[in-house]
Amino acid sequence: MNPEAEALGFLEALFTPEPPGLIAITRKPAWGNPATFTNAAAVGYIIANPLDCYVRIGLIESKPPGRGTEEHTIAIPGVYVDIDVIGGPNNAGGVVKNGAPTLEAALALAHAVLEPTVTVRSGHGLQVFWLFEQPLTLADDQERASAKQLTQGWHARLQREASAHGVTSLDSCYSIDHLFRVPGTTNAKDKDEPVPVQLLDDGGPRYSIEQIREQIRPLEEWSTNGDRREHDQGSPSSERSDHAVLERAFADRNRGARIRSLYNGSSLDKPSRSEAAAALTWELAYFTQNPYQLARLLRGSRNERLRRPDEIERIIKKYAYERWANGEAYQWSDDVEPDEPNAEAGGSWLTGAPMDPAAEKPEPLPTLPGLPFLHAGASAMIVGPTGGGRSSLIEACLYDAARAGLPCLYLGHEVTESEFNARAASLAEIRGDALTDQLRAELARARYLDLTTTAARAWDEPTTWAEGVAQLYRVVVFDPLSAVESAVGLNFEQRNTEYIRFFDRIVQPVTARGVSVVLIDNVGHAEEAKNRAKGASAKSDRADLTFSCALVSDGLLVKAHKIRSVRAAFSRGQTWLFVKATQMIETQAADAGGFRPTKLMQKASIYIEMNPSEGIRAIRCGVGGKLDYVDKAVKCLVEEGFVEVRSYGQKRAHYSLKPFRELGETEPRTIAF
Fold first, then answer.
1. CATH number of the domain at 367-587, out of 3.30.470.20, 3.60.21.10, 3.40.50.300, 3.40.50.10490?
2. Burial of 351 (C-beta count, 10 Å sphere; 0-12/13-18/19+)
3. Each residue's pLDDT tens digit, 174-192
4. Cis amide bond preceding 135, omega within 30
C-alpha cells in the first residue's frame, strides 16, 4: 500500500468520507498552527509534509487559536490507546522504559477486550482505535465531559488487562483532543533512524457506544441479588498485584506446572476447554479471594472460553465461590521462595512453561471417520488442478463421515446445492446403498451452505460464526478458497497479510474449538508449484496439513506434504487413492511415493551448486540423460528442500539450499557435464 492510500484509508476509517467537522493536521515543530480540512483532501497536505505529521482525534468546527483544546472538539470517532514498546526513543531523548516488552505483546493487549477497528504501527509502538458506527457528535461541555469519561474508562479497561500481557503502562492518551501519527508518514523521533508509520489493519468491526460502555462498567456490577462479595478490603490477597498472584501460583511446588499449562491454553487431562477453564478458575481461586482480580487473571489467560465477561462471571460463581465457601485459601508470606527459574528475577511472562513429557500422551491422534487424512482440530489445505476431482473426493469423504455419525458442513460455490445432492445420489448408487429413511437420516448430518453468503456473514460476525460452527459441526469444508476472497474482498493471490487475516479471523477460532477445517484450492501453473496452493505462501504456512492431488489411471492420488504435529497418524509422503470405480478412499503403502532418480538428483544438485541461477533448460543440458528423468530429479530436489526456485520475470532460476549426495559425499566432485 502506498503512503497516500494508507493515509486516505486511515482518515476515512476514522472520520468517514464526509466527516461532521473539520480535520486538523499538525506537524512538528508548528504545533500551534494546524491546517484544517473538510474531508480527506487532508491527504495532499500530509503527503507534502510527511515528517512527524499528526491528526487531531477530535473534529473541530473552525480553526482554533493555536493548537486548540478539548473544548473545541465537536466529535470523536471512537475510543483509543497508544502502546509504547520498551526500548524505543522517548520525547526526552532517552528510551522508553515502561510499556510493552515486544510488539507482539502490544498486539495481544490490543485484542484482549475487543477486536480493534484500526491498528497503526506508529514506528516504535501501536496506535489502536475501536471506532463507533458513526463519529459521536458533542454539542456542549456536558457531552464533551461524558465523551472523555468514556475514553478515560476505556484506557482504564485496557490498563487492567496490561499486566497479564507483560505491559507495564499505557500512554495517557484519553483526551478528546489527542494527536496521533498518520500512516504513510515518517516518525523521526530518533533523528538518526527515522521509521515509517504503517497502517496494519483498518477492517475491524465497529461498535455501538453501549458495547464500549458494557466493557468498561465496573466488574462489581456482575454481582446482584445478594451474591456480591466484598473482598476488595481485608482479604489475604487484597494488596497483591495481579502479577504477584500469578507469580506465586506458577511457583507453587505442587500445582505450579499444572496452573501454568492451564493458563497458557493447554487442556491437560480435561476433555474440553470449558472443563480446562473451570480447572484454572478453581486453581487460581486458591491464591486470590478477590473475584474482580480473579476475573482479570482469567481474562489474561489463553483459554478461548475465557474471553466473554458473562462466561467469566458464570464460571467464577460456579467454581471459585464454592472453594471460598470451603475456606480454602493460600497463606501468604513474603519469605516463600519460588521454584527455579526465579520468577521474581524476570517476571512470570518470561519464565515459560516447563517441558513436561507427562502433559500430552504420545499416542498418534486418531483420524476422523471417512477422512483418513484428517484429525480433530486440524486445518488442511488440499490442492490440485481444476477439474481434477477434488470436490468429488471431499463429498465422498463427507458421505462416509456422515454415515459414521460425524456432523459436517460443506460450503460450496462451484458445486451447487442441487449438484451436491445429485452427487450424493450417485455415490449411493455406486456404493449399492438403498435409499431408505435410515440412509437419508444418516446423510442429513452432512449439510450444504452457499460459500459466498456464509463467508461474508462469518467475516462480519466472527464470534457468532466460530461459536455456531463449534456447536453444530465437527468438519467444515471451504470449496473453493478462491470464492472466499471474492466474498470478503481480500486478495489471497498476492498478499500474505490478507490471507492471514482471513485465517486468523475465520479458520483458527474454529480449529481452536476442536473443529477440523478443509480448504480446497488450485495449484500454481509452474512445474515446481504443482504441489502447493496457488498464490500467497501463507496458505501452506498456516495450514497444519497440506496435500496435493494428481490424476492417475485408477482415480485421484492424494499425497501428504506438510504434517505439523508429531502425533499425526501418518507422515510426509503418505498417499491415499480415491478409486474412480468404487468412489472409495484407500490408504496406500507408506513408500508409495514412486521412483526417485537419486543418481540424477546428485548430478543435478552438483550442477546447480556450481552454476547458481540456471534455468531448467540449462540444467537439462548440463546434466544430460532423459529429459523426463532430469525434470523428475529437479522436482524431487525442490520438494525435498535441497533446491530453491526463484522467479525473475519469465525466468525461473534454481539455487542450491544444501547439497544432495546419494552416497553421503559432502563436497562437490568433478563430473563431466
1. 3.40.50.300
2. buried
3. 889 999 999 999 998 888 8
4. no
User: What does the alpha-carbon distance between residue 602 and residue 586 come to, in Å, rounded to a whole number?
Assistant: 33
Task: Render pLDDT for 382-412 as a digit per residue (tens, 0 to 9).
Answer: 998 878 789 999 999 999 999 999 999 999 9
Q: pLDDT category, 13, cuts 50, 70, 90?
A: very high
Q: What are phi and psi of 200, to 5 degrees?
A: -85, -40
CA angle 230, 234, 238 (to 5 degrees): 85
Select from 291, 262, 294 the least CA-distant residue to 275.
262
Average of pLDDT values for 475-488? 91
Looking at residue 337, what is its pLDDT? 41
The three cell numbers locating residue 256: 505450579
* Interaxial angle between packed helices 616-623 and 627-639, expressed in degrees from 0 to 180 and rounded to the nearest 10: 120
Q: What is the pLDDT of residue 516?
A: 95
Quote the pLDDT of residue 3: 87
Say which amino acid occupies 462: P
DSSP character string of 14-74:
HH-SS-SSBEEEEETT-TT--EEESSTTHHHHHHHS-BTEEEESSEESSPPSTT--GGGEE
Q: Which position has the higher pLDDT, 139 or 229?
A: 139
Lowest mean pLDDT among 21-35, 52-66, 379-393: 21-35
Q: Which residues of 399-417 are buried (b: 16+ CB within 10 A; e: fewer)?
A: bbbbbeebbbbbbbbebee
> Is 615:653 a contact under the CB 8 Å cutoff?
yes
Q: What is the pTM of this model?
A: 0.43
- Rounded-to-integer distance, Cα 503 and Cα 510, Å: 10
Residue 191 exposed, middle or buried by CB count within 10 Å (0-12, 13-18, 19+):
exposed
Q: Which residues pair with 119 in a beta bridge?
A: 128, 201
Q: Is 136 helix (H, G, I), strand (E, B) or coil?
A: strand
What CATH superfamily is the domain 3-215? RepB DNA-primase, N-terminal domain (3.30.70.1790)
CB count within 10 Å of CB 661 equals 17
What 3 state SS string does 322-363 have? HHHHCCCCCCCCCCCCCCCCCHHHHCHHHHCCCCCCCCCCCC
Listed by start position, the domains of the chain span 3-215, 242-351, 367-587, 598-656
Those residues whose C-beta lies under 8 Å from the C-beta of residue 325, and which sit 6 or more positions away, are: none
